[in-house]
Amino acid sequence: MVIPITVTSHVARDFLQNAAYFNTVPKAVWEYVSNSLDNPREGIPVTVLAEVGRNRIRVQDNASGMSREDLRRFFQMHGENIARARGKRVRGRFGTGKCAAFGIANVLRVSSVKDGNRNVVELRRADIESARSGEPFPVRDVVVDEPTDEDPGTFVEIEDLNTRQLDVDGIISYIERHLSRHHQQHTVVINNHLCEYVEPLSVETREFEAPPDVAKVIGDVRLAVKVSPTPLDSDTNGIDVVSNGLWHETTLAGLDNRELARYLFGEVDVPALEEDQSPIPPFDNTRSNRLNPQNHLVAVLLGWIAECLEAVRLQLAEKERERRRSEEARQLDKEAKALANLLNEDFAAFQHQLARARRAVGADLGPGIGQATPDDSGLLMPSTSGAEQTPWQMAGQPHVDGEGGTEPPGPGDEPREGPSLIPGDSMGERHAMSDHGPRRVVRGGFSIDYRQETAEAPRSRYERDTRTIVINLDHPQLVVAKANAGSIEGREFRQLCHEIAFVEYAIALPYEMAQQSEYYDVEDALYEIRETINRITRRAAAVV
C-alpha cells in the first residue's frame, strides 16, 4: 500500500513562530484590545480596560464574550475570523492573534462570559514547547460552562513577562494611533488613561481624486494631503492608508528623505484593498504595518500617492525659497547666526571646563565631546592635523618671540580667561559623541531657526539630532513683541528671542551632557539649567 504524501505542519513551532511577530508590548496589547473592539454586543459600545504592570497585563471588556465553542475556534491557528465571515468589517484577518501573548510572556489566561456561562482556559509556554511531535497541543480547562448572572465580556491575563521594557506612554501612543482609524465610538482606558487620538495641526489641505487610469485599479478614491506647521515624527509623518476605516500603513511612498517631506501627512481610504483576491495579497501576516508592494493594486496606489505628495512638497519648497529671499528672512538669518555664535561661545567654554574637570579627577567616563573616535563624521573641532573647515578657532593670546623653557609644557597654575574655542574658520577634524549605544552624529554647534509654526504650536523647541533651537514666530507672545517693537530689529522683539533661545539652550545642555555619559540626577540638571541661564544672560547683556 502506497502512503500518500501530504502537507503537514508542526503546530507548536508554527504557533511560536507566529507569536514572534508580536515582539513588543504595544503590539500584543493592541491585539487583544482590537479583538474586543471587533466583537461588540448589538447596539452597545465596547469599553476596554487595560492594566499594564511589571509582570502582568490585563485586558477586560464588555463585548459579546465567547462560549466554549467560540474559545475552541479562537485557538484554531489560521482559522477564519467569525465576524469577518458574517460580513462585518473587522481588523482580524490571519487567525494568528491568539499567539500574541507568547511574543512577550509565558502565560495566557482567558476568562469569558456568554449566554449565562463562564469559561476559563489557560495556556503556558511549557505546554507548547513540550508538544515535540508536532501534533495539536491542549489548552487547559480551568472553568467549564459555569452558570453565572454576569454580563457578557472577556478578561485576558498575560503573565510572566519576558520583557522589562514596559513603556506605558509608548503603549498608550501606539493604541491611540490605531484608535484614530478604528472604531472611534468605543472606549479604551489604559492604566486609568482614556485613549484619545489628536490629529497633528495642519495649515493647509489639498485633495486629489484618483485619475481614470488609477481609478480602474484602486477605485474612485480621494486622497487628502495635509501640511503640518512643524516636522512630524515617524509615527504621524505620511499618508494613512485605510480600507473601510481599518488602518494598514502610514507611508511617504519613497519621499522619506526629501526636503520638507517631514511636514506632510494625510489619509486615503481604499476599500478595494479589502476586496482584493490577487494571488499576491496586498497584506502580510507579520504585523509590520506595511502593505505588500508586490501586489499590483498596492504598487499603483503607492505610485499615485508619491505623485501627489511630490506635487505638494515642490509647492512647499518654492514657498520656502520665496520666504528665505525676503528682506525680513535675511534679517532673521543674520540675527540667528549672531545668536548662535553667542550660544556656541558658551558651549565651547563649557566643553573646555568639562574637559579640565575630567583631567583633574582622572575620570574615565568614555568618549565625549572633543575626544577623538574612529568615526569619520561628527562634531568638527580645530586640530593641527585636520584638513576640514570648522566653525571654530582656538582662543587665547597670540604667540610672540621668546626663548624656550627647560620644562615640558603643561596646563599651568592658573586657568586662562575666556573660552579655549571661539567661532571662527580654523581647519580641523571631526569628533563624535557616544551615548553607550549607536553613535549619534552631531555636526557643528547649536543653530537658531525662526519658523512660522502657527499660534497653537509651542513657543520654541529643540531639535536634538541637529542641535537646532526653533523659535516660533507665530506664537502670540512673539507676535505682540514684534508689533510693540515695530519690526524684528526692535529691542523688545530681539530681547524676547534671546530669552527664548537661552531657556531652550539651558534645557538642552543637560541633555547633551547625558549623551556623553555625564549622567545627572534631577537636582543636578536643575542646577545646571539655572547656572547656564545666569551665565549666558551675562554674556548677552552687552549684545542685546
Q: In what range is the share of β-strand residues?
A: 15-25%
Our measurement of the CA-to-CA distance between the termini, rounded to an integer number of angstroms, reads 98 Å
Overall shape: globular
Total number of helices: 13
Rg calc: 30 Å
- Major beta sheet, strand line-up: 5-4-3-6-2-1-7-8
Could you give a short account of the major beta sheet? Answer: 8 strands, mixed
> How many structural units, i.e. domains?
3
What is the structure about, briefly put?
The chain has helices spanning 11-19, 25-37, 68-74, 82-85, 125-129, 168-179, 212-218, 272-275, 296-325, 327-361, 476-485, 491-515, 522-540, and strands at 47-52, 56-61, 105-114, 117-124, 140-147, 153-161, 187-190, 193-194, 204-209, 222-227, 238-243, 246-251, 264-269, 379-382, 388-389, 392-394, 421-423, 427-431, 447-451, 460-463, 468-472.
Secondary-structure blueprint:
Blueprint: H1 11-19, H2 25-37, E1 47-52, E2 56-61, H3 68-74, H4 82-85, E3 105-114, E4 117-124, H5 125-129, E5 140-147, E6 153-161, H6 168-179, E7 187-190, E8 193-194, E9 204-209, H7 212-218, E10 222-227, E11 238-243, E12 246-251, E13 264-269, H8 272-275, H9 296-325, H10 327-361, E14 379-382, E15 388-389, E16 392-394, E17 421-423, E18 427-431, E19 447-451, E20 460-463, E21 468-472, H11 476-485, H12 491-515, H13 522-540
Parallel strand pairs: 1-7, 11-13, 19-21
Antiparallel strand pairs: 1-2, 2-6, 3-4, 3-6, 4-5, 7-8, 9-10, 10-13, 11-12, 14-18, 15-18, 16-17, 20-21
